[in-house]
Amino acid sequence: MLLLIRQIILVLIVFVTFPSLAGTAPALIVQTDKGAIVGNGGLVWSFKGIPYALPPVGPFRWREPQPAESWTGVRDATHFGNDCMQLPWIVSSGQAYSEDCLTLNVWAPAKRTKKPLPVMVYFYGGAFLGGSTGYPNYNGQHLAAQGVVVISVNYRVGIFGFFAHPELTARSPNHASGNFGLLDQIASLKWVRANVAAFGGDPEKVTVFGESAGAGSIAYLLTSPLAKGLFHRAIMQSPVLGQLPDLAAGERAGQKRAPDLSELLNMSADRLVQESGAYFAITQPDLLGFPIPGPIVDGYVLPQQPRQAFATGAIMNIPVLLGEAAEEGRMFMDANRVVTPGDYEKWLSEKFGTSAPKMLRLLPARTDMQAKSAMTTLIGDAMFGISVRSIARAYAPMQPRTFTYVMTQPIADQNLLPTHSEITAFVFGTLDVPSFTPRGPASRDDIRLSKIVRHMWVNFSSTGNPNGRNSANWPAFKLGGEEYLSLTLDPKPGSRFHEGILDALET
Fold it and tell me: Which of 75, 238, 477, 487 has the smallest count of CB within 10 Å of its CB?
């Protein structure tokens, strides 16, 4: 009775404090460990902009995330929080940019069940340079409607999330710097563990999932002792398992940018993000030839090179599901660019050195179309294909619930094989909103495929296995056969995807 009276009082407070909610969507109040929040919705409730850490502003810039402060009364959780500081990035979220950005969002089925629901926590991609939980593609309501609690997390990116400096290392109680974005993700998972039961979720059944840099983050967290026990399954959509700089290299880059750290500590966030290119230009370039900041082997968050951790089995032993698109590299190629066989051979020489002739034998090109297709294939396989296979090969001997996929269903309006990031809209069921890759209106086939993908992703989050009733027979990845599922309207098993090219790239 007292609980009911308290809930009624809180509802009255909400409508006095937030009169715009009265007479519109139903309002629901949930008590978190820091205070009460109000969200809204219908069949699926949504709670947005919930702080999971103290804003990393002023003296907290480039520090480990600190616990959020408690509040009194009821906090409005009906709008997304700010995007983390970044240069304008591909698709606008409509949110303001700010250093005060460490928030997350929750979507939960309105109908509560006796048994707690599986939880799916999403980390966005964006090359560790950008990203936002406010992107229309990441709306969690359709996925949550399948019977899971969906959470999306804002984490620091670019120079705000991945900046190392000797002075930062010296002042850190952990004697490390540079992996603030990964520490944000870990802090958000601690929030999930403490609070998700209040939304109907099971803190012992948490699946992390992400795409591109989000998937790469998960791969790195699988090697981090700080993340142990915070999640129980992992889905990696197009991960990159890169060779990372160490702390000394990160500190040299930071010191070269700012011999005196106080210059950057006192700089406005707007100016700092505009000048961040001076730091990025001295970080390691990737295959495509542009510099990308990101995680480093700092000895604290990442004690050793993630590639080495995967090679030796020093990784979290949990069920994993991972894969790639059939034409990952197409997103990184200008659609209007003409690539001649001569251009292709020159590029091979620049990127692969003495291995270029071998790559040319594997992927010969006599026409412009063949040259562009071969370059596209190599970019995709070198960045994503080799990473998927390396991770799967590391897990297969220790974890029987290791599953890989290749998304091969042509995108209906273009008759093209899917490319990087394209699976995201199918996972979230958001085919009707702006995407990172140009796409026309969703076809019936697109909608059917989205339902298939969501069904399997939810199965995996529930049981650690994507198979279930009315589901395709998805074989586990095993050494030797290296089976994967071809994601189409009629999913079928395959094996050894692009084996010859990946073998050559591995050398």
Answer: 75
